[in-house]
Amino acid sequence: MLMTILAGTLNAQIPDFTPPTPLIAALMHNDTMEAKHLLEKGADPNEGRLLGFSPVFLSVIYQNKAIFDAIVAKSAAKRVDLQERDPWGSTLLMWAAFNDKGNPEIVEELLERGLDPNATNKAGETALTWAVRRGSTAVVTALERAGASNQAVIRDAAQRSVTLLQKSGTQFVRVSGCVSCHHTFLPQMAAELARSRGLSVDEKTANMETAATIGMVKPVREELLRNPNKLPDPPVTLSYGLLSVAANHYPADEITDAMAQVIAKWQRPDGGFQSMPMRPPIEGSHFAATALSLRAMQLYGKDSGEQVRRAADWLRKAKPDTAEDAAMRLLGMSWAGAPIEELKAAVQSLLDQQRPDGGWAQLPGLETDAYATGQALVALKWSGQVSASDAAYQRGVGFLLRTQYADGSWLVRSRSFPLQPYKESGFPFGKDQWISAMGTSWASMALTLALPEQKVALDADSRLSSDVTTTGAAAGSR
User: Fold this and answer.
1) Considering Cα of 204, then 244, then 177, then 419, what sign does the dihedral take?
2) CATH among 1.10.600.10, 1.20.1050.90, 1.50.10.20, 1.10.760.10 for 152-462
3) Which of 443, 440, 441 is nearest to 429 (CA)?
4) For the whole model, what pTM was predicted?
5) pLDDT tens digits for 256-292?
6) CATH code that applies to domain 22-149
């Protein structure tokens, strides 16, 4: 057995790193003195390739500015092509941005020499793609100053997320027989934002999930009005449900009216709403329950102005403890039109929780994750006090882009007791799939809000079916 393994190893294709020229040999060893000596003696900086990389590429890969300068000094006589690309279509600028130390020297030199900061390789990556994977560095700043944009990367990341969420949401309804906050309501809100930015949305899926949400409540409407405790945690579950159908332009009717009435019955004397703290983070925050209930009553409640005002007053006065509390407090205050100075204070409180990696954590002792980061960014953007171009927002976007999986998802660890058996929906991460789907929804919304809004008219085939008709309020301000 061992001999078989050894034989297979010996027959494997091992890349040949033998340097074809003395100059490339010096570059392989990052030998500045020898490389400069060879260049001074007339070595051709265009001669030879190592795995497809020319000498100038090797100098940039090693971030050796002295050798790079020496090669460039020969460019007049030897015509060194700084616009050359490697076998994968990557430019020198991309390799200069591939720089864990964040040193912008070669990046700035290449930008001054006319390299395009938005050029893409065969994978669609740009220099900024590689730079943001290393956090908020001087390289990122230099590229952005030169006009680099990550819009195409953001658009692709958001599209992959929405596609995955819609596909797994349909499967969850199929295997569980019900709708949910994690696989239906938040993904519907993400789809609405995606639609507004010109991303592709499966309208049949969106309509099916809206119909499933209404269909869940319709048979028990009368009983719900008599017994507002029948469904679990109405300030969260029913409120998210109303936000989701509003996101798909569902009109107010007797079903949404009943849902809003049930939510309203849960308001406490102090104006707030409480959530059963059994499934954090989505069910565990009185701030979330209050903000979501406030918004649900705004969208579908009748004569609910006074209840909305009291809920907003509670949010303004209460002190948040967790990232969920802080983000939901800001969302609720924004929806209620809180005074600008109070909004600014709530914004700053949330910004103060941003970590050096650009993200947020659900609790002080937990790692940074997509759920807290996406939710914080959405709250900041919807407050109207933070733009997508602001440094804090871009740092958050950078964190999300760095941590997204290729399929469009983000992994978020669950910290809830498994009160319900898991239903496999096709979303990854096993028993962490539900919170991961929620985190992916928030992250997708945060990325989508970094894209320019587009006017998108739904055609007849994209609109809701005859028994689930169109028009109605959108899920939130943009």
Assistant:
1) positive
2) 1.50.10.20
3) 440
4) 0.84
5) 999 999 999 999 999 999 988 777 888 889 999 999 9
6) 1.25.40.20
